[in-house]
Amino acid sequence: MDRTVNPGINLTLMSPAELQEGVARLSRGTYFKEASLEVTLSILTESAAQMSGIARVSIWALCNSQAELRCLDLYDLSQRRHQNGMSLYARDFPQYFRALRAEECIVADDAHLYPATREFSSGYLDEHGITAMLDTPIHIRGALEGVLCLEQVGTHMSWTTMHRLFAHAVANLVTLALVEYEADEARRQAAIADQRLQSILKNSPDLAVDRNSLLAQPG
């Protein structure tokens, strides 16, 4: 699925202070509680691309027992377009999937040569003109759940400490968004279960009497 959002973007790389302030503004955003997960992730990828000047920013979720990475949202800065739904599989890219589990951050200044990303070379990298990758694993309660990807296209520069800190900060915001989504889903499921229980009790008076009797008994 493709969709276009906010065509007016700034292609100029921001200073470290501006990047820091930009992340701070994102972290204060009310959309974490008010917007859907899809909209929240699209805000994060697009804002990260605009602030950093990186051509492609994407968020991927691990699924199918960590055998698949599924794209939740990818923002292409040059095309000003969001995409999602693409998948990458561990069977096709075993070194990359191993690196995700083992490394704090995959820093590939030359994605065609870096051990963890070179297996993408003849397909994914060439198809999109990607030259460098900076991939930050996303953990929730200590478990690896996905990855935030920053990708340079065409000519490239070496990733700096500031890039790594920026990617880590955005990955933390993605984690926050996913945790909020999980909490909302848990509350929604609890409400549905409660409504079902109330409906059963309403339609079964004998069950309601038994339940009230049990609740009235001393501990």
List the helices and strands and how they pair.
Blueprint (H helix, E strand, L loop, with lengths): L1 E2 L12 H12 L3 H4 L2 H16 L3 E8 L4 E9 L4 E3 L3 E3 L4 H9 L3 E3 L12 H8 L1 E11 L2 E11 L7 H43 L1 H12 L3
Antiparallel strand pairs: 1-4, 2-3, 2-8, 3-4, 3-5, 6-7, 7-8
Helix pairs in contact: 1-3, 1-6, 3-6, 6-7
CATH architecture: 2-Layer Sandwich
The number of domains is 1
Number of strands: 8
Question: pLDDT below 50 for ≥5 consecutive residues: which ranges?
Answer: 1-12
Tell me what the structure shows.
With 219 residues, this protein is of the alpha+beta class. It has a single domain (2-186), classed as 2-Layer Sandwich (Beta-Lactamase). The protein has seven helices and eight strands. Strands 1, 2, 3, 4, 5, 6, 7 and 8 form an eight-stranded antiparallel beta sheet that branches. A hairpin with a 2-residue loop joins strand 7 and strand 8. Helix 1 packs antiparallel against helix 3 and helix 6 packs across helix 7. The model is unreliable at 1-12 (pLDDT under 50).
